[in-house]
Amino acid sequence: MQDKIRGVLFDLDGVLVDTAKYHYQAWSQLAESLGFSFTEKDNERLKGVSRQASLEILLSIGNVSLTDKQKENAMAEKNANYVEMISKMTPGGILPGALELLKELREKGIKTALGSASKNAPIILERTGLDQYLDAVVDGNRTSQAKPDPEVFLLGASDLNLKPGECVVFEDAEAGVEAGKAGGMLTVGIGHEDQLGAADALFPNLKGVSWTMITEALEKS
Ligand code: B16
Ligand code: MG
Questions:
Q1: 111 and 65 together in one domain
Q2: Among residues 3, 11, 18, 135, which one is catalytic?
């Protein structure tokens, strides 16, 4: 490993919580109102992608063109539905193993930050109680560049007063792993080798994954 690891930067959707299912429901409703259907397989393409880029993908699937004003309205409608759903989240919405790992990191004195594309991260963190376990939060409200640009993770490292080489990024999206690498951080992929083969270490999910298991996997990389 380059430096001693002193901080972990977590993506939100797909790593700490499964909000992809709510994004899917809200985008599906919008697709239906525009006269086409949107499948769960299509939804995979939206993971880790910004709201605006997600809309463009959705419209290309439906072969629909909208004016800029109509796009603004479509995103507002989708977001209102999505916010209604995430406002009902509870700590039960945290993915298996995530809370245990956050608690272990706190006990071990390793700093933690969020690095998410979502502008709705504050509601999700508050509803699930995850906000109590994060030392810093960087979300879509603070960034101007989408992943794979490293901005979100560089801001996270800076908020923790750490050098990028002292941080590990946890990501479920290919663009997120690329962003961590571009920022000079080690990366842990959460998901499948097909998308995340570039990560320094890979786990299917965080269930039963301890900090020792993670550092051992990174040392082998
Ligand atoms: P919002 P992450 C991403 O979260 C989601 O994976 C992606 O599907 C969503 O479009 C994006 O946040 C923006 O979310 O519409 O709430 O601002 O994986 O970066 O935590
Ligand atoms: Mg994600």
A1: no
A2: 11
